[in-house]
Amino acid sequence: MLRSAILGAAFLGLAAPAFATSFTFETAKPVDETRVTVIGTVWTCEGTVCTGEMNRKKVTLRDCKKIAKKAGEITSFKNDKYELSADDIEACKASARG
């Protein structure tokens, strides 16, 4: 009986929805499109600010570079707990589309 309860709880844990966190990035110039899809996320953009939900906890330089290739020069990338450093933002800018 206890074994069944443990297996049931484990199954529910696997079936639970993934944890999504709201992320925001800002660009140097307004983004041409109101929706940009990159890194498996649909980003909703208004002017230079874009927001999206990602199944990650932290912002990364790697993600910033991928976004920059699609959206242009990134000036900030953050969520409610983490933000890329000024050095990482400079490295990210080098990946921006031309």
TrEMBL record:
Where is the secretion signal located?
A: 1-20
Instruction: Tell me which NCBIfam families the record gives.
Output: CC_3452_fam (NF047636)
Q: Which InterPro entries match?
A: CC_3452-like (IPR058067), DUF8200 (IPR058513)
Q: Which organism is it from?
A: Hyphomonas adhaerens MHS-3
- What's the protein called, per UniProt? DUF5666 domain-containing protein
- Keyword line: Signal
Entry's Pfam families?
DUF8200 (PF26624)
